[in-house]
Design a protein that fits this description.
Elements (H helix, E strand, L loop, with lengths): L1 E4 L2 E5 L6 E3 L2 E4 L9 E10 L3 E10 L2 E9 L5 H7 L7 E3 L3 E4 L4
Antiparallel strand pairs: 1-2, 1-9, 3-4, 4-8, 5-6, 6-7, 7-8
């Protein structure tokens, strides 16, 4: 699967390596091109997953505000629900599309 921003692949991994939570695909940290992310100051805490870190996605002077996020330290109870450790996995939305290459 791929995450694309303005036609640029910013994350790519096998579907089996991603984690699906609440209708969002979370990419392993090693599959994300970090040069397209910059930390956002937007605060958010999910009631069941914990404190979220948002990222702007882009490069140069062109950035999509808060179009990616991660949970660096998810609540232990959420790991029981998800059944996998998704710490630091990255999900995308807004101006980033996630595409499945399978037929």
């Amino acid at each position: 699967m791929k995450a694309l921003w303005n036609g640029v692949v910013i994350a790519e991994a096998d579907r089996n390596d991603l984690i699906y939570i609440e209708q969002n695909w979370y990419f392993p940290p090693s599959s994300v091109k970090q040069e397209y992310l910059r930390e956002s100051d937007t605060p958010y805490t999910c009631p069941w997953k914990g404190k979220c870190q948002y990222f702007d996605v882009g490069q140069g002077d062109n950035w999509s505000h808060d179009s990616a996020w991660t949970y660096p330290h998810p609540k232990p109870s959420s790991l029981d629900i998800v059944k996998k450790d998704y710490a630091n996995y990255v999900a995308f939305w807004r101006e980033v599309s996630v595409e499945d290459e399978r037929p």
